[in-house]
Specification:
By secondary structure, the protein is an alpha/beta fold. It has two domains: about 10-35 and about 295-405, Alpha-Beta Complex (Aspartate Aminotransferase, domain 1), CATH 3.90.1150; about 40-295, Aspartate Aminotransferase, domain 2 (3-Layer(aba) Sandwich). It is about 40% helix and about 15% strand. It contains 14 helices and 15 strands. The protein has helices at about 10-15, 35-50, 60-80, 95-110, 125-135, 155, 180-190, 210-215, 240-245, 280-295, 295-315, 345-350, 365-370, 385-405, and strands spanning about 25, 85-90, 115, 140, 165-170, 195-200, 220, 235, 255-260, 265, 320-325, 335-340, 355, 360, 375-380. It is globular and about 70 Å long. It starts with 9 loop residues before the first helix and ends with a helix. The structure holds 4'-deoxy-4'-aminopyridoxal-5'-phosphate. 4'-deoxy-4'-aminopyridoxal-5'-phosphate binds near residues 92, 124, 174, 222 and 363. 4'-deoxy-4'-aminopyridoxal-5'-phosphate binds near residues 94, 122, 124, 170 and 199.
Length: about 400
C-alpha cells in the first residue's frame, strides 16, 4: 500500500519504546507502552529520592514531596485546570470514577433520583453508578442513541432532567473509537444545573484536553494509557464541587485533626488522597506528560487520525470482516467481527504472528449486547504505530483466513 507521509518522526520516536521491537502492539486502548525516560524516572526515584511525601522533614522527604507536587502541576498544565487543588492522583479511571460516584452520591443522590449514562460506557463508568443506584434507591437513565450509535441530541431535552443529579459519559468509546458529542450533553446538563463527569480514558494523551474549554465538572483518566506507569490516574474536579464532597476514603494525609470519635479533614487535594500515594507513579506520569507535550499533543492526535485513515483504507475491502463502527473518522480504535473466525481464535492466530490485538467484550458488555454480538476483535493504535505494521496485520489476517478455512 502507498505509505502516507507523517509529520511525526515515528521511526525516531519508536527508539524510545524498546518493547515495540518485540511485536506489533495494537492493544493500546488497554494500556500504552512506556518511553525509556518514563521507565528511567521510576528507577531514578527509587535510587535517589525514595521517601514518603507530605510528612517527613528530612531532605529526602522534602525532595520526594517537591517532585510529587511538581507532577501535580504538570497534570494541571496538561489539562489546563485552574488550580492544583483540582488535581487528585488516583490509581486510574476506575478509581477516579468510583471516587466521584461514592462521594457525590453520599452528598447529593437520594431515593428517586437518577444518574445519566449511556449504553456505550466501559464497565468502569457504569458499574459504580449501578452500585450507587441500588444503594440509594436511585435509577440509571440512558442517553438516547441514533442507529449509528451517536447521541440523539434532539431527544436530549426530553430526558427527565428534574430527577437527574449527575451525568457520566465517555469522551471516546473504547470499542468504537468515536468521539462522543459531549458538548451537547454538557450544555443540556448545565442548562439544568446537572454536573457532568467525562470518562477521558481514551482521549487524554490522544487528543488535546482543556477542562476549562470543555466546561466539564469532573474528568477521569488513566496515566497508563498515555505513556505513564501502570496504577496511575487522575481525577480532575471543579474546586467548588470537590469542596462540597465528603472524603472518599479515610486514613493518613487526608485529615486536619483527629480525635477519638471524629476528625476534620485536610484541604484539597489531600482530602481525597488517603494513605501513602503512588508517589513514583505520579512522578512517572508527570514525565509522560512532558514527553507527550514535547512531541505535541496536536501532532499526536493528527498522527492517530492519519493512521486510522490508513487502517480504514487498508481493511475496508475485506468482505469477511464487519466493523462495529463504520464512520471513517474513528480515533485509532477498530472493533470488528469476522464472518467465520471467532475473535479469540483470530487474536490467538495473530499472536502467533507477533501481532497483539484484543478479543472479547472490552469491558463493554451492554454495547455488545445492544449489537447482539458476544465479543469482537479490537485493534487500537497509538502514535508510535506505523503504516507497515498495519500492512503486516492485513497480511496476517489473510493468512488466518486461509488457516481457518481449511
Ligand atoms: N473507561 C474507558 C473508556 C476505558 O477504555 C477504560 C480502560 N479500558 C477504563 C474506563 C478503565 O480504565 P482503568 O482500567 O485504567 O481504570
Amino acid at each position: 500500500m502507498e505509505q502516507l507521509t507523517s509529520v511525526l518522526p515515528v521511526h525516531t520516536i519508536r527508539k524510545d519504546f524498546p518493547i515495540l521491537d518485540t511485536c506489533v502492539y495494537f492493544d493500546n486502548a488497554a494500556t500504552s507502552q512506556k518511553p525509556v525516560e518514563v521507565i528511567n524516572s521510576i528507577s531514578n526515584f527509587y535510587k535517589n529520592t525514595n521517601a514518603n511525601v507530605h510528612r517527613s522533614i528530612h531532605r529526602l522527604g522534602e525532595k520526594a514531596t517537591a517532585k510529587y507536587e511538581d507532577a501535580r502541576e504538570r497534570v494541571r498544565n496538561f489539562i489546563n485546570a485552574r488550580s492544583v487543588q483540582e488535581i487528585i492522583f488516583t490509581s486510574g479511571t476506575t478509581d477516579s470514577i468510583n471516587l466521584v460516584a461514592s462521594a457525590f452520591a453520599e452528598k447529593f443522590i437520594n431515593e428517586g433520583d437518577s444518574i445519566l449514562v449511556t449504553e456505550l460506557e466501559h464497565h468502569s463508568n457504569l458499574v459504580p453508578w449501578q452500585l450507587i443506584a441500588s444503594r440509594k434507591k436511585a435509577t440509571l437513565c440512558f442517553v438516547p442513541l441514533r442507529d449509528d450509535l451517536s447521541y440523539d441530541t434532539e431527544a436530549l431535552e426530553k430526558l427527565p432532567w428534574h430527577t437527574i443529579k449527575i451525568a457520566a459519559v465517555s469522551h471516546i468509546s473504547n470499542v468504537l473509537g468515536i468521539e462522543n458529542n459531549i458538548k451537547s450533553i454538557i450544555s443540556h446538563a448545565h442548562g439544568h444545573d446537572v454536573p457532568v463527569l467525562i470518562d477521558a480514558a481514551q482521549s487524554a494523551g490522544h487528543i488535546p484536553i482543556d477542562v476549562q474549554a470543555m466546561d466539564c465538572d469532573f474528568l477521569a483518566f488513566s496515566g497508563h494509557k498515555m505513556c505513564g506507569p501502570l496504577g496511575t490516574g487522575v481525577l480532575y474536579g471543579r474546586e467548588r464541587l470537590l469542596e462540597q464532597l465528603p472524603p472518599y476514603r479515610g486514613g493518613g494525609d487526608m485529615i486536619h485533626s483527629v480525635w477519638k470519635d471524629k476528625s476534620s479533614y485536610a484541604h484539597l487535594p489531600c482530602k481525597f488522597e488517603a494513605g501513602t500515594p503512588n508517589i513514583v507513579g505520579a512522578i512517572g506520569l508527570g514525565k509522560a506528560m512532558n514527553y507527550l507535550s514535547r512531541i505535541g499533543i496536536t501532532a499526536i492526535s493528527d498522527r492517530i487520525y492519519t493512521l486510522s485513515d490508513y487502517f480504514y483504507k487498508a481493511t475496508r475491502d475485506i468482505d469477511s470482516i464487519q466493523f462495529l463502527e463504520t464512520s471513517e473518522k474513528t480515533h485509532g480504535i477498530f472493533s470488528f467481527v469476522h464472518k467465520i473466525i471467532h475473535p479469540h481464535d483470530l487474536a490467538q492466530y495473530l499472536d502467533s504472528r507477533e501481532i497483539a490485538i484484543r478479543a472479547g467484550h472490552h469491558c463493554a458488555q451492554p454495547l455488545h449486547r445492544m449489537l447482539k454480538i458476544p465479543a469482537s476483535a479490537r485493534v487500537s493504535l497509538y502514535f508510535y504505530n506505523t503504516e507497515s505494521e498495519i500492512d503486516c496485520f492485513r497480511t496476517a489476517l489473510e493468512e488466518a483466513e486461509r488457516f481457518f478455512y481449511v
